[in-house]
Write a structure and sequence with these properties.
The chain is α+β, with helices and mostly antiparallel strands. 25% of the residues lie in helices and 33% in strands. The chain is built from 6 helices and 14 strands. The strands form 4 sheets. The chain has a 5-stranded antiparallel β-sheet with strand order 13-12-11-10-14, with no helix packed on it.
Length: 232
């Protein structure tokens, strides 16, 4: 779903579409953002809590995408949760989530699992939209605005929230691919260990990469797992 103006606006889940939806507000926020990023801190049970509170349209609650300073998502979440408590808004603002997922990075032949933000610079808030609840969220330190058309925040559809939660709860970590077609890579595992080759094809669905390796004077295609190669 796109964030373009329509009679019933909605929100795409991919990063590119969400970035586009923020428009000029994003550019302004980034210019004002502090220079250093705060490390992402995983929140135990956060994905489960979000999954249990997927919006119930009958009582008026919806999930909204809120733009904040990139790298400060967890601090903004903490600030907002404090405001909800002190301003007595638990009956209108129900949940605040920083969508994250596990990702495997391969660097210098070593594998490292890291917590990665799904949408850097954004948090999800489940709330009943009123003037008071809008004010509490919008004026939280670090928040730069809601994603939507003009001054009208655009709620996510229930199925969109479900997709995000499913991504957060995935058992297998995503693998970060740091190379592209045509690049030189080094094979770090298997019978072709230490061979240098050229990336010929990347299959994201199967998590496989085909590398052309010079073997006995001939270019030979070798299919490998993402974790078996690294940038040369």
């Amino acid at each position: 779903m796109e964030l373009a103006e329509a009679e019933t606006p909605s929100v795409e889940l991919d990063e590119t579409s969400v970035e586009a939806a923020a428009g000029d507000e994003r550019e302004t926020a980034e210019a004002a953002a502090p220079p250093e990023d705060e490390p992402t801190e995983p929140v135990e049970g956060e994905a489960q809590a979000a999954g249990e509170t997927i919006q119930d349209e009958e009582d008026g609650r919806h999930w909204y995408v809120v733009h904040c300073y990139s790298g400060y998502e967890n601090k903004v979440r903490h600030n907002l949760e404090q405001r909800i408590e002190t301003m007595g808004m638990k009956d209108r603002i129900f949940d605040v989530v920083v969508p994250t997922e596990e990702e495997i990075e391969v660097k210098n032949g070593k594998r490292k699992t890291v917590e990665r933000r799904v949408f850097p610079g954004y948090i999800l808030v489940q709330m009943i939209m009123t003037e008071e609840s809008w004010y509490v969220v919008r004026n939280t330190p670090g928040v730069t605005g809601f994603v939507g058309m003009g001054n009208e925040p655009t709620p996510l559809r229930p199925e969109e929230v479900s997709q995000i939660i499913k991504r957060m709860e995935a058992e297998a970590p995503r693998i970060k691919v740091t190379y592209k077609i045509g690049q030189k890579v080094r094979i770090i595992d298997g019978p072709f260990n230490d061979f240098i080759g050229t990336v010929d094809e990347i299959d994201m669905e199967r998590a496989k990469v085909r590398v052309m390796v010079s073997f006995f004077g001939r270019e030979t295609p070798v299919e490998l797992d993402f974790l078996q190669v690294e940038k040369a």
